[in-house]
Amino acid sequence: MPRLFGTDGVRGLANKELTAPLALELGEAAARVLAKNNLGHRPKAIIGQDTRESSGMLSQAVAAGLASAGIDVEHVGEIPTPGVAYLTAEQDYDLGVVISASHNPFQDNGIKFINGDGFKLPDSSEDEIQAVLGQEWDRPTGDGVGFISENSMVSDKVYMDHLIRSGHSLKGLRIALDCANGAASDVAPRVFQKLGADVVVINAAPDGRNINDKAGSTHPEQLQAMTVATGADFGFAFDGDADRCQAVDHEGNLIDGDQIMGMLAVAMKNEGRLKRNTLVVTVMSNLGLHLAMREQGIKTVSTKVGDRYVLEEMLAHGYNIGGEQSGHVINLDHATTGDGTLTAVLVASEVAKQGKPLAELVEFVKELPQTLINVPGVDKTRVDAVAAEVADVEAELGETGRVLLRASGTEPLIRVMVEAATQEQADDCAQRLADVVKSKLAL
């Protein structure tokens, strides 16, 4: 069987690739793997979900699978992915489960597992779950069966208070929020209001089908326009499960994860809080961020794409901030995973503390022109077949740019990314390579 787990859990078209029976089996398998740890007590799990119409179906199926294997399950309803991660660790759950496909369209969904410390499961644990999937086993009966309950208030009592405690007074600031009609729709506006901001909110009326629909961090156009139209000081756009965010300044200019990470890393360095003087990024981060960090006396370490790999590097070497260009920022001083609302709170708090416009705080990160082309309908396993063409373009760019070809971990396509001294050169080189990939690797 091919590997079920991608870079962010099990994901697919809801009720076709990711079905209720599969979700139930995944719950059973995760419980059986957890039972091997000999916890010494009856294990308990927490389940949260985003706002997709299929999330209820899948969360109930996972809960049934867990309970059938003897785990007590508490369902906390609609909540950001990082909220489940925080609560899993803070409230001493043995396992956390999130039903979400993040920034994907509403037809898709996903299942993510989180360990008792609040971290996403490593590849080895996911492989162990897949290995026992569907195997025959002796199910418990009687009082050995788990109990399923609901507790939608825990988000308010614990997670939202955590976000508020992490911030600084935002009185006097007008902040626009695009909640993508997703999991941040309730939590994020209330957090910023509690911190004293004048909040302008769009796309916070989920109906089960409008999550990420021309909204949120992957479609920031509405936020850019609204920020300018309402005279907001800046704004933030979240994705469907609110584990990432992008920002815009008062003129509506987009501020991506690279600029956000650069700004926060410098602030932490200036306050003596940047561990080992290092920022962890992925290979997708712009060369301009690396150059800016070098000028600020901060080291950068790159990993392959995926927040789990950023986190592994951070934990292995004692770093405390890292993330992705997409706006998935991990700050281990506050959280165990990327948290879009938390990132927005920290950025806004820095603006309030320094008394400077957001645009001024990020202007030192001069990003090189970048072009990204997604090429669908190709064999993702044969990227090496175009290595010669990649080498030719790299030689053409020299030290003023770079090339990155990678298979998507969540979608059936190859990503072609080129950075260059000019946008025209980046566009030209990326298109040439995309044409080669489409020609040579077509299915």
Report the principal-axis shape. Answer: globular
- Count of individual helical segments: 14
- Spatial extent as radius of gyration: 22 Å
CA(first)-CA(last) distance:
21 Å
Please state the average pLDDT score.
94
Going across the major beta sheet, what is the strand order? 1-2-6-5-3-4-7
Helix content: 25-40%
Which structural class do you get from the secondary structure elements? alpha/beta
Number of strands: 19
Low-pLDDT residue spans = none
Percent in strands: 15-25%
Q: How is the biggest beta sheet arranged?
A: 7 strands, mixed
Overview of the structural elements:
The chain has 443 residues and is α/β, with parallel strands linked by helices. Helices cover 37% and strands 21% of the residues. A seven-stranded mixed beta sheet has the order 1-2-6-5-3-4-7, sandwiched between helices. The radius of gyration is 22 Å and the shape is globular. 51% of the residues are buried.
